[in-house]
Write a structure and sequence with these properties.
Largest sheet: none
Shape: rod-shaped
Strand content: under 5%
Length: 244
């Protein structure tokens, strides 16, 4: 700042001496040469002071920018290979957990549908077991009809059981096969109840045999569907016996 001030003083002196030189020249007093020499000297000083001031200003700006850059660099978070590796592991663990929860949620929904059959199925089993011990043919017919209607409903409900989004293709396929299997098992159960109703009507051994065959087929299909769910659980890193 002081160099700029000295430059201004030098320039003002230069102007003053230059004016004085022209006045002396007009008056012919012989002093004009001294004024011209002095004004030239002052002009040289003006140039020197201005250059020094400009150089100092540039240095100050560069220093200030350098300090700012150092501050920004110091405040910026450091990313290294260890941080990236740690974050990757965290992301992978969260993704794995989300997949596991999705598969367990599907299994829970299937189990809840299965649990909803218990009251009617138990009633159906009790009535058939007590045939001739107080339960009438009408009781049996009613219980079997109710069980058949329930099986038909579950056939539809299992078929429409939603599969979670964003699962790996192999896991999605296993769950799709499971729901199709469970739906098919209840279709077979519905057919087995049809056979019982016919047997109650006509007492033909062929209808009793048809009931046994359809019922055994339903159990095989249901068992295979449940194994598909277990495989899906293992695919996402769960034990087959893990429950939600």
């Amino acid at each position: 700042m002081i160099w700029l001030f000295l430059g201004i003083i030098s320039f003002m002196g230069f102007i003053g001496c230059l004016v004085g030189a022209f006045i002396a020249l007009a008056q012919k007093k012989g002093l004009h040469k001294k004024y011209f020499i002095l004004s030239g000297s002052l002009f040289v000083l003006f140039i020197i002071f201005v250059n020094i001031s400009a150089a100092n200003t540039t240095t100050a700006v560069e220093t200030n920018q350098s300090v700012k850059q150092e501050v920004v660099t110091a405040s910026a978070p450091t990313t290294n290979a260890a941080d990236i590796s740690t974050q990757k592991k965290v992301d992978e663990a969260n993704k794995k957990k989300a997949l596991q929860e999705a598969v367990l949620a599907f299994e829970k929904s299937a189990q809840e549908l299965e649990a909803s059959t218990s009251p009617l199925m138990n009633q159906y089993a009790d009535v058939l077991e007590n045939m001739g011990k107080g339960s009438t043919r009408n009781d049996a017919y009613s219980a079997v009809t109710n069980a058949k209607n329930l099986a038909k409903t579950l056939n539809t409900n299992y078929h429409n059981l939603p599969i979670p989004n964003n699962l790996p293709k192999d896991v999605e396929q296993l769950l799709d096969e499971a729901r199709i299997g469970l739906s098919g098992a209840y279709y077979k159960k519905e057919k087995s109840f049809d056979a019982i109703l016919k047997y109650l009507d006509n007492q033909k051994p062929s209808d009793a045999q048809a009931f046994r065959e359809e019922n055994e087929s339903a159990q095989r299909i249901s068992k295979d569907a449940i194994s598909k769910i277990a495989q899906a659980k293992e695919k996402v890193g769960l034990d087959a016996n893990t429950k939600k």
